[in-house]
Design goal:
mainly alpha; 39% helix
Length: 243
Amino acid sequence: MDIIYLLLEAQKGQLNYEDQSDNIDSELSAVDESDIIKKWKKKIDIKDDDIMGVGLGFFLAGCDTATNVMSYITHELAANPDVQNKLFKEVSSAPRRSDGKVTYETLLKMKYLDMVVSEPEREHEKSLHIEKGTQCLIPVFSIHRDPQYYPNPETFDPERFNNATKRNIKAYSYMPFSVEPRSCMGTRFALLEIKLAIAEIIKMFEIVISDKMQFPLNIKKIGFSHYPASGMWLGLKPKEVAS
């Protein structure tokens, strides 16, 4: 469900999740809304300017994070041609509108694309009480690469997120957008943005690693983000499109 729609419904006091069990957005592996948000039906004072500000904030705040994720995904696709070929088969065979564009529903139903994006539902465990005022930092990067949770964590393996194996992912060991009430409200927008960009690139180009690319990547930390120390050097080789 779109965040702007949620805000508009909250503005009118008509936020209702009771009939959303068949929501197509459930196809997104990383989407898991908090029960607190699902039960939120109280009308609150939301101005049109607030909604406009949130929408603008999505484009500004999500620019660096989304492009960063897409850079790593394209790098892994270039380094793993078998994965890239499998993804191309799914994208190229997906239904399209008459103008050749991928539809919203089609994009969400691309299972392997979701697995690829999820790689770069869980049972709930006992809660942990944290005293008010305690500062907490969650080492998500390290958790996602902990062999205790993910065998061969440095291997790019989208199959970790197929329907059979993703059920075995331990609670709270996978949280690219955080979880529960503090989860990112731009999760759906970011995932759809990334998936659409990757799908369109894969449809038209073969992604290859440039001679300038340092491999494996030498990652450096800048603030809370991680970037390749020598940059991301990839090439796009046009595919022959059948007439």
